[in-house]
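Deviations from the work plan: none for this task. Representative record:
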Amino acid sequence: MDIYRAHVLVCGGTGCSSSGSATLIDRFNEKLAENNLDKEVKVIRTGCFGLCEAGPVVIVYPDGTFYSHVKPDDVDEIVTEHLLKGRKVEHLVYVDHSTHEQDAEKSLDEINFYKHQHRIALRNCGVIDPENIDEYLAMDGYKALEKALTTMTREEVIDEILKSGLRGRGGGGFPTGLKWKFTYQSQADQKYVACNADEGDPGAFMDRSILEGDPHAIIEAMAIAGYAIGASQGYIYVRAEYPIAVKRLSIAIDQAREYGLLGKNIFETGFDFDLNIRLGAGAFVCGEETALMHSIEGKRGEPTARPPFPAVKGLFEKPTMLNNVETYANVAQIILHGADWFASMGTEKSKGTKVFALGGKINNTGLVEIPMGTPLRTIIYDIGGGCPNGKKFKAVQTGGPSGGCLPESLLDTPVDYDNLIAAGSMMGSGGMIVMDEDNCMVDIARFYLDFIVDESCGKCAPCRIGTKRMKEILDRIVEGKGEEGDIEKLEELAQTIKSTALCGLGQTAPNPVLSTLKFFRDEYEAHIKEKRCPAHHCKSLLQYKIDPEKCRGCTACARVCPAEAITGTVKQPHVIDVKKCLKCGSCMEKCRFGAISRE
Amino acid sequence: MSEMDSKFAELHQIIEAHKDWPGALMPVLQAAQEIFGCVSEDVQKVIAEGLGVTLSEVYGVATFYAQFSLQPKGEYVISVCLGTACYVKGSQAVLDKLSEVLDTPVGSTTPDGKFTLQATRCLGACGLAPVMTINGDVYGRLTPDQVPAIIEKYRTPA
């Protein structure tokens, strides 16, 4: 193995790739060669570092200098200054949003964003080259598989997972060990292990980051699961929208086969196991386990009623054990370090850590992994750096289309499965979208319903018809045509859908409406009774006005108005004809004197 | 061999290779979508015959998943992310502006076959919200006023 004096880690996750990190890698290699440093410094494309907001991100080791928002033109300077002369490029060093500190001496772990984190599922993301199995092996990779196969019985493996208290990270929070045990107990000539990588929850991208940054962790865990339940074949069902993840996973599977870590007689124990990738095709409902299995079978991804549960009758009618990506990402660590180690983290009923995708109106957008039980406030303010532009926090949405919006008053809730449900939301896959005072909660509820109406598979009437009726009512409300009694109708529909829909997608579909009704009922009432949107968001309810004191009569607004709704003489205050106004906002953008306001 | 013939020859090869797979229909349809840019009725018929399933089954699957389209798409496919993170940061306004500039409703193709405008679910680039992609090129941190200049770039090829 070649020894290098320095390593340049460039994030190759989807976020940083989208902002041009591939060009950075080429440029680094080019410049290093020009300076004859290519034998001394190695450039590695890693998985996601998590702090997407700062992308593209580059870390230079051994110093651990964290450069953010690096542009191709900055590469020259990093190479000639830092790598050649050993002088850190101060002006490119990451600036901490919450403290406005820019400290080149601070290591990654000391930055606010990382300080509170505890990375188990993400431990290798941004650390190793995901396309190189040797790097995974160097991080104790496949040691857990070896330990399980050579020193543990199948029952002991299942017991360890049970004792650890690990629960499904895909949303439901079902105890993982129980799932393993049930499938183990089923008798059949063939069983399957499956991985749900159909991450459909908008705003959640931890599964993708794990697949992109540490694909071998999933392969290893699935092999361990295969051994435990008695399956020789596994399927990974990945979203087609994740090309980088699919590519790295394919490379990883090939490498594992080459090293004899997949295939026949693994570790000379007589255990056979192999994996196949199946691609999704853009259907949210396929995240539901029965729908996912139908999709792998090549059918329409429609859910079926349970029981029979997949542990008894799943894929191709055989007992099947399906876990989510992040769940699998914990397995090898539990086997290596023991159930007690894992169970020492978290709360009474939610053990370990959870990865959250912080997004929306928050300074530090990205992925964070924190121990269960961390309060929402710590996640949003200490790690996330709060809302940008000094705006006031309004709500945080967790659990995606199945979850709910929680207000400021609940920010001290320690995050775990049970607390979030008690608060009226749910864990879901870990999307955490922050909203500020400019976001209208009625519109957000409408947005989620729109998503559900679009993604409902149409099999059962409550979901197919019920969610559509709910959306029609919400459409009416945001257009200013809400009527007395609409809120009650929404509540009645919501309860009916919750109790009668066929699958989890339908049963949880009304949650965004119910939670916003619970915490932001006044916004609904303002829309319906006063025809007013308190967040000044809903177009139909806005009124544009010109302040005669501030207007200089420059005519710019009148000229830009597409509806000719603004009249007035030059150098005299203008007026907007409310009846003609289309509420497009062009005049407000154009006005140089801040004379136009909307309310 | 015409271009169409060679595409069908390729499809036949794919069908042969997947025939004995359990659940072959999805991977075959995905390959067909890649080859033809859409799965028209002719293509569906060939797949049904090749895999020994009914045409209604193929049609059922093809219309269930968003990835498969029955009509060809435009030269440039513009996908605006309507994931939650993008939505709360104003991607709807970007989508509306695109619809206005292209003079075509969301989910349709311009009459000249140049642009298809669609809303898409989370692309996972939430750090760059609001985001859109045009044939794989990613545009992040968008505002509606950037839209006309971006579209102009694709209208007049360099």
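The longest helix of chain A spans residues 461-478.
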